[in-house]
Amino acid sequence: MKLRPRCDETPAWQALQSHHQRLGRHFDMRADFAANPKRFAHFSQHAPHVFADLSKNRIDAEAEALLMQLARECGLEAHRDAMLAGEPINSTEQRAVLHVLLRNQPAAHAQAVLEGAVAEAAMPEVNATLQAMLDFAESIRADEGITDVVNIGIGGSDLGPQMAVVALQAHALTGKRFHFVSNVDGDELGEVFGQISPGRTLFLVASKTFTTRETMTNALSARRWFLEQGGQDVGRHFVALTTNLEAAAAFGIRTCFGFRDWVGGRYSMWSAIGLPLAIAIGAAGFRALLGGAHAMDLHFAQQPLERNLPVRLGLLDVWYRNFQGFTSRSVAPYHHGLRRLPAYLQQLEMESNGKSVDLQGRPLGYSTSPVVWGEPGTNGQHAFFQMIHQGTDIVPVEFIAVREPAHDLPGHHAQLVANALAQAQALLLGRADAGGHRNFSGNRPSSFFVLERMDPASLGALVALYEHRVFVSGSIWGINSFDQWGVELGKQLAQDLQPRLASGDTSGLDASTAGLLRQFRPRF
Ligand code: F6P
């Protein structure tokens, strides 16, 4: 791939710095709303399944225009097109990045995002695997003998499907329970064992590599428990979701659903890793999820940058991180079903963009991923929103609400939505108080996303929106958003330390680790 200019060496970067100085740290959104009656119209837009209001952000039209210039000078469009063309943009692993291909499911009137050689070569296999997985999901749905589905996986092999199964509860089959076991802490698996019986349980061993130690330990313990409890036929009760079909076969698993190395772990809920979700919401529901994501893919691939929602969000993230100096972003889903979304987004964004060298391995002179965190509203309001309203740091908040609720309890939805709107309003407007303690400075930024309803298509579009937004900021920063070397060192050190817990050998260890290890000695 052609070398792209470093963002901090572009004319637009310099212009943004000057603009930021001119604007001052305290650009007042309220004054801009008053002076500019088109501010809401300009900074809000529809995208597939999502309406987004970005007008309550500390940004003016000129900053946005300069950010668009930055995107062009950094070659964002060419980079996006290279990803969609299947070029190996994950350069440290020499891999293409083609999760978009998994939802390249043009309905009768839709278009394919990916056309050309790569898509042509891969689509038959993608379609065949999808069909096989959905057929299997339907067979499990129809099998009344299976009452419990236990997904064993971690990171991308857990967070995506778990978040989606929870979010789409209202669309899920009744009569089956879904469990997600990720932690190697035996308490988690032990708790699930207490709720299931071997003959009525389907274990899904979800691991892209089929080597992740936590997952392998949990899978082996599950198999041992299954056999000890009199379970018959590991081949029927254990299924693998993996790119490593040989290792799954060696485990004794007959039924495998595969995917390719061009699907990153945190981008894999659209692949075989989505099987628990497919069992929960059925083949049609899963296809609707892919359809919603596909609609967002088309939007990302085709809309001009100025009306391209993932692009606008990714550039806003750059503006906040590198020019305004904000260090974190809080996600506040005003929907009980989206309670696992913050955890999902933490991996998506922080594992993708928590990098400090560019594609050539050179240290960066600017910040990258913010801390992403959050809790559903209204709970967060009664906990940490104090800091968001009156603390010394500015934390942009992202509100997510749905127009139509899935329940019919009178009054609840209006109260929920009123709270979300009120929080965003309070952050913007603030309130003066001479005494100080009740003073709300206001002018605090937030974005607001409205989904039509919480259904598979809307969720698919929302997640794809986030994926592409992370691509955009990572692309501007010139980092590889698709590797995760930062997780490796700790894994290796754990392998060294585990036998030392038994042997007590502290030779060569730093004093703190040695001292801590001794604290655990009597236990082992
Ligand atoms: O350790 C991080 C990580 O590699 C994630 O990127 C990944 O989603 C997770 O582990 C699980 O990996 P696997 O699906 O290969 O078990």
Structure overview:
This protein has 524 residues and is α/β, with parallel strands linked by helices. Helices cover 47% and strands 11% of the residues. It contains 19 helices and eleven strands. A hairpin with a 2-residue loop joins strand 1 (44-47) and strand 2. The structure holds 6-O-phosphono-beta-D-fructofuranose. 6-O-phosphono-beta-D-fructofuranose binds next to loops.
What is the topology?
Elements (H helix, E strand, L loop, with lengths): L10 H13 L5 H7 L3 H4 L1 E4 L2 E4 L7 H13 L2 H9 L32 H26 L5 E5 L6 H9 L9 E5 L4 H8 L7 E6 L6 H16 L5 H4 E5 L2 H7 L3 E4 L16 H28 L6 H15 L4 E7 L6 H13 L17 E4 L10 H6 L6 E8 L7 H18 L16 E8 L2 H22 L10 H16 L7 H10 L4
Parallel strand pairs: 3-4, 3-5, 5-6, 6-7, 8-9, 8-10, 10-11
Antiparallel strand pairs: 1-2, 2-11
Q: In the CATH classification, which architecture of the largest domain applies?
A: 3-Layer(aba) Sandwich
| Alpha-carbon Rg, integer | 24 Å
In which range does the helix fraction lie? 40-55%
Number of helices: 19
Mean pLDDT, as a whole number?
A: 95
**Whole-number tally of structural domains:** 3
Biggest sheet: strands, sense, closure?
Answer: 6 strands, mixed
Coarse morphology: globular
Q: What is the name of the CATH superfamily of the largest domain? A: Glucose-6-phosphate isomerase like protein, domain 1
Oligomer: single chain
Termini Cα gap? 52 Å
Low-confidence stretches: none
CATH topology-level name of the largest domain: Rossmann fold
CATH class categorisation of the largest domain: Alpha Beta
The chain-level structural class is alpha/beta
